[in-house]
Each structure stands twice: as C-alpha cells, then as structure tokens.
C-alpha cells in the first residue's frame, strides 16, 4: 500500500485532534454565553442582526424552555420546513431560473414530499439527479437553506440534551429559537462563507448562469450544468446533511475538483461534531470524559476506514484466479477501482466512506453499490450503530451519551450498585427512554425493509436483482434513511411512489425518534441534584469504561441487525 494515503489519513486525524479544542470552546461560547461572542464592528453588526431576528419573530431569547416546550418548538420548526420546501418544489417550474430543457425528471408530489422531508431532517436522501430535476432557485432557497436551518435545529437539540447533564435542579433546557439563530449566525454562516470562497478558489462553480453546451471530438454536444454549486457543497458538509448539487455528488469534478477540496470537505463533516465532545467536557466540568468520547468516536471511524481500505485494496478475490494483474504497481492502483474517482483512488474513497457513514452525511465520493461486500458491511454497521463515530451535528454525541448510559447501567448491574452518570443516578424512567431510543431504529428499518422485499412495488426498485446484493440495496436504503444519512446504492430505482413514501417514513422516524427521546432524557436529568462520587461509582473517564462503551455499541448493533446483515453483505462476501 502506498505511504502517501496513509500520511493523508494520519494528517486528517491529527488536524481533527488539534481543532477539537478551539472549535469546542467556540461552540461553548456561542451556545452557552449570552451576548454577541464577537467584538468589534462585526460583532456589533451580528448582534444587531440577532436582535432584529428576535423582534421580527417575537421571540424572547432569555426565556428558557422545559423539555416538552423545547420539543414542541423543534417539531413545529421541522414541520414548517417540510411544508415550505414542499410547496417551493411543486411551484419551481413557475419560478425564475427553471430550465425545462434541463429539468427532465418530473417533480411529482411524492418526489417533492420525499425531498422536503429529506432536507428538513438533514437526511438529504435524493431520489433524483439534482442537475436534471431542480432549478438554481430550488437548490439555493430550498435545499441550501434547509441545510442551514435543519443543521442548526439538530445542533440546538444536541445542546439542549447536553444541558440536561450540566444543569442542576432546573427544568429549563434553553431557548430553541435562540439556539437556532445563534448556531446559524455565529457557527454555520461564517464557516460556510469561508469554505465557499475556498471552494471557488479551487474551481467549484458559483453562478446562476445557464448550462454550457460544448461540442465534443466525437461530434455530439455535451451539456455542462453549472450553478451555485459552492454554496450548497460546503453547507451540506458543515450541517452534516450531504446531498449534492450533482447526481455524482462528491465524485463530480465540479463539486470536488482537487485533493484539497476533498480533504477540506471531509474535515468540514466532522469538525463541529468532534468539537462538541470538548464542549460537553467544558459544560460538565469533566474534560477527561469529553476526550474519552472523542477518542472512542475516532477509534470507530478509524476502524471503519481500515476495514474499507483493506477490502477495497484487495479487490475481488475471483479475479485472483484469472490471468490478470490485480496487485498495485507503478502502472495501476490495483484493488477494486470500480465506482471510484481515478483522481482520488482507493484510500481517499475509504476515508470518505468511513467519515460519511459515521456521520449523518451521505456526501460520498465513490459509488456505494460498487463497494466490496465487507466495505458495504462496514458502512451499514456504522450507520446502524447510530452513527456514533462523531455522528450528526448534535445528535451524534447524544447517541454516544445514550450508549454511555447503557454501558453504565450494565456496569452497575455487574457490581451490584445503582448506575450513575456524571453525578446523577440512572433510574427506571431514564432506562425506558433509552430503550425507546434504541428500539425505534430496528423497528423502522427492519419493518420497512421487510415490506419492500415482500411487495412487488418494492422489488421493482432493484430491477430483478433478487440475490444478496439486491437485498443489500433495499436494506441499505432504509438504513441510511433512518440514520438521516442519505447515501444509497446506485442500482436502486428510488423515484417511485412506494420508495418515496416509505423512505420518508424512515427519515421522520430517524429524526423525531432520535430527538424526542433525548430531549425527554435531558428533562429528566436536569431537574435532579448531583450526587457525590463514591468508591463504587464507575468512572466515565477511564480506559476500561471506553472498552465497555465500544463493546456495548457493537453488541447492541449486532443483536438487532445481524440477521439482516448476514442475508446481505455478509452472505455476498462468503459467496466469493
């Protein structure tokens, strides 16, 4: 294996480690300290804009909300986002920037509903090709705007969850509307503007002009679609949404033209979720626990990357029995290059797949359907774990903390003591909410996948591929929808009424079934008083606890989904 990709992987994780502390400190300043976090003219200007938004929306940013009110505000915000985007997509043919010559995919009502649910839940599942379906106006005012707003809503819910463990004897979890506004103004918007300029510098288009029609050497005319690509590409990663301007997503040369844009895009996906671990440590005054969660997340991503890189570099074992060269050399990369960009190669594709599968960001730079079965298994299992390897913006860390509660509960049973987490006892009501959180995923994914493989409308989506790969294709669709990720096997015909409606159900369960239980958990913990640590308390900042946490995550995922994984990617691997 070449050393250059290994150094690139090491540099990626090293930069992430160095950035976690300042990014986490800035998130803590923005989300926890009142007043403008910036000084000078820029800070005063953003402060006045923030105040104007509150007055226009008639919001009192200082009024804290109990968990039920916070959850209600989150539901209303998500519902309005779905409705507005749904109407915009249905009316796009009557609005400016719509080109009927390019928009060859009809915007049916069920496709519009699926897309609206997808982007309002940060799933960005795309049952269409962006360049042949949406106008520039829909891409910017619809999809890019929802990447900002839905991403900020996820961060707000995550911060409310973390406050439940840092606040004592109070029912308030903060103000949802203020959290969203501050997340957009002081976190997502500045990073998106800077990232957009970098992408434009590297050659990513940013305009509203018509498509370019160019003649080719073979004779036919090639249509090159451009548009506000840079604006959408950076916020889809920062907001852990995914969903590209083009059908090829992160493999398209307009969306991802250079190794630098590839590196920055991957870093943008995990930057804020990684920083949140440090934010949690500051909020709970236990930075060691924050670092422990960071290293557990990093270990999960690194393991997925290693499995994917090894499987793809080996390639198809059937080819080893043929008189063809399959090993890497100075003349060829070797391994499985199907579905990958020659500009990036196997190792960059492996890092991209591991990062996107372990976050709620399906911003892939390679085709998942072309992965070797073990690589597909690693991607699926990463999502089935709840994408706790950094995860979505706010919700990923919340999922890791929920697994920490399960680990402590199991550890408490082992030593015969009541489990505690950060000075608070974990009682029966909290474990019921944890059980709901953990069981909603298997219920949604397995039921929807079973319907799809049992009904003709579902089987039509895989065009007669009824073997193990066909099952993996259907199973992957509902795994990624529930995980609010959005990546999919390219051989799935997802733009049908059946898949548009059932995948929308999976996305809603994945979003609401994640956020509502964690807000309820935060409400339970925030009203309690801290208990002093005793000799029997299992410390959540030790190496043994890290091993217990990883083991709990692996066992929980395997118990729920092993039969389905065995029928899909595992059986396909054993069939070679």
Describe the structure.
- This protein is mostly helical and 576 residues long.
- The mean pLDDT is 87.
- It contains 17 helices and four strands.
- Helix 10 (345-357) runs parallel beside helix 11 (373-384).
- A hairpin with a 5-residue loop joins strand 1 and strand 2 (221-224).
- The chain has a domain at 3-277.
- The chain is globular, with a radius of gyration of 23 Å.
Please summarize what this structure is:
The chain is mainly alpha-helical and 576 residues long. The chain has helices at residues 3-32, 40-57, 67-90, 109-120, 136-166, 176-201, 229-238, 259-283, 287-314, 345-357, 373-384, 395-415, 428-454, 456-459, 468-482, 497-526, 543-574; strands spanning 212-215, 221-224, 420-421, 424-425. A two-stranded antiparallel sheet has the order 1-2. A two-stranded antiparallel sheet has the order 3-4.
Notable traits:
576 residues; mainly alpha; two-stranded antiparallel ribbon; 17 helices
């Amino acid at each position: 294996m070449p050393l250059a990709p290994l150094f690139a992987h090491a540099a990626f994780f090293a930069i992430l480690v160095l950035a976690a502390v300042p990014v986490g400190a800035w998130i803590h300043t923005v989300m926890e300290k009142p007043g403008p976090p910036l000084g000078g003219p820029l800070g005063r200007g953003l402060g006045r804009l923030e105040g104007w938004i509150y007055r226009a929306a008639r919001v009192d940013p200082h009024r804290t909300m109990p968990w039920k009110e916070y959850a209600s505000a989150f539901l209303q915000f998500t519902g309005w986002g779905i409705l507005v985007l749904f109407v915009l997509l249905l009316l796009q043919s009557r609005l400016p920037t719509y080109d009927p010559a390019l928009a060859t995919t009809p915007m049916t009502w069920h496709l519009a509903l699926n897309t609206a649910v997808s982007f309002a839940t940060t799933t960005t599942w795309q049952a269409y090709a962006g360049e042949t379906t949406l106008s520039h106006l829909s891409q910017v005012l619809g999809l890019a705007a929802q990447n900002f707003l839905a991403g900020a809503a996820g961060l707000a819910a995550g911060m409310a969850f973390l406050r439940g463990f840092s606040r004592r004897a109070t029912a308030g979890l903060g103000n949802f509307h203020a959290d969203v506004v501050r997340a957009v103004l002081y976190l997502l918007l500045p990073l998106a503007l800077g990232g957009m300029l970098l992408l434009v510098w590297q050659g990513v288009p940013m305009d509203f002009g018509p498509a370019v029609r160019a003649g080719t050497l073979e004779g036919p005319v090639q249509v090159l679609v451009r548009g506000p690509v840079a604006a959408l590409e950076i916020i889809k990663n920062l907001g852990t949404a995914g969903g590209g301007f083009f059908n090829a997503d992160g493999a398209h040369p307009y969306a991802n033209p250079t190794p630098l844009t590839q590196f920055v895009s991957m870093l943008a996906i995990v930057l804020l979720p990684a920083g949140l671990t440090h934010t949690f440590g500051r909020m709970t005054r236990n930075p060691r626990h924050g670092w422990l969660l960071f290293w557990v997340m990093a270990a999960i991503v690194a393991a997925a990357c290693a499995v994917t890189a090894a499987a793809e570099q080996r390639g198809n074992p059937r080819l080893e029995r043929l008189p063809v060269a399959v090993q890497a050399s100075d003349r060829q990369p070797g391994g499985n290059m199907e579905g990958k960009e020659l500009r990036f190669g196997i190792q960059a594709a492996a890092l991209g797949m591991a990062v996107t599968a372990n976050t709620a960001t399906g911003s892939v730079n390679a085709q998942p359907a072309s992965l070797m079965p073990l690589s597909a298994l690693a991607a699926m299992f990463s999502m089935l774990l709840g994408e706790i390897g950094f995860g979505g913006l706010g919700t990923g860390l919340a999922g890791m903390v929920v697994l920490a509660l399960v680990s402590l509960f199991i550890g408490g049973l082992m030593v015969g003591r009541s489990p505690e987490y950060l000075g608070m006892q974990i009682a029966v009501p909290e474990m019921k909410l944890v059980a709901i959180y953990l069981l909603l995923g298997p219920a949604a994914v397995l039921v929807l996948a079973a319907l799809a493989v049992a009904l003709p409308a579902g089987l039509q989506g895989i065009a007669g591929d009824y073997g193990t790969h066909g099952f993996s294709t259907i199973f992957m669709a509902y795994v990624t929808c529930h995980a609010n990720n959005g990546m999919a096997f390219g051989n799935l015909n997802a733009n049908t009424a059946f898949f548009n409606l059932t995948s929308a159900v999976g996305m809603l369960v994945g979003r609401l079934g994640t956020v509502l239980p964690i807000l309820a958990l935060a409400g339970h913990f925030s009203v309690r008083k801290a208990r002093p640590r005793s000799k029997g308390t299992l410390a959540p900042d030790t190496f043994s606890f890290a091993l217990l946490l990883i083991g709990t995550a692996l066992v929980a995922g395997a118990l729920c989904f092993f039969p389905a994984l065995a029928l899909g990617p595992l059986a396909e691997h054993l069939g070679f």
